[in-house]
Amino acid sequence: MHRFANFAVLIAVFTLAGCAPQAAVKPSSTVTLNLDADGKPVADADLQTVTDAVHMIQSGRIQLAIDGPLTEVITKYETMYAGKPVLVFCANGMLDALTYATLGSKAVNGKVDRPVEVIGAAWARAHWARAYAYSEMARYPEAQAELAKALALSPMDSQYQSELAFTYQRSGDWQKMLALYQDAEGNAEISGVDPETITRLKCVALRGEGYALVELHRLDDATKAYQACLKLTPGEPKSLGELGYIRDLRAKSH
What we know:
Elements: E1 2-6, H1 10-16, E2 29-36, H2 45-58, H3 62-81, E3 87-90, H4 94-101, E4 107-108, E5 111-112, E6 116-119, H5 122-136, H6 140-153, H7 158-171, H8 174-191, H9 195-215, H10 219-232, H11 237-253
Parallel strand pairs: 2-6, 3-6
Antiparallel strand pairs: 1-2, 4-5
Helix pairs in contact: 2-3, 2-5, 3-5, 5-6, 6-7, 7-8, 7-9, 8-9, 9-10, 9-11, 10-11
């Protein structure tokens, strides 16, 4: 059994919590998510369309997925919000939805900066899927641009941050890569809908940090990052392999 939750009443909560600097200012923040009986998000028709497009990409129908279902979903939302003075975010679950709902609740000269509308994940997910498609076609600048668009809609999404960070490996921008992976680690708790997902997101981010730190010749910090992943996931093979690589580097330097 599903329930459709609209949390416009959160406005009062944000005002009482001090998110509005003046009592007369009432930021407009609306959260609209489709939830199941346990409060977990349910895949709506648009999100299912994106999932179907991912299956098309995996089966080799990459350009068809880009031109068809992914463009369809993205165009739908771009048209829906074109010209509207709202700040739109896409959320995976209630925790990130509530976090995004506060981001536009700022006032400038006594006036609300911008009202916020938080919706489901489909729009951002479509940009992520298009990035995946472009990566499969080795069109890396376009993939990077799509991931940036996904993050504009879901700025604290750990997966999107990690995948954007990975694109900087090709250009060797280790500092940018490291910063994004660190953000991804910090946002794993917000992004994950269950403990298993949170652990996976954290480990991906920590391994990415380790990789960048090795390239920056910060071997002690890299070791700590890989060890942190192993603490979360004992025996994780990629971290064990990278720690072996670090030991080899140290041995060669002596």
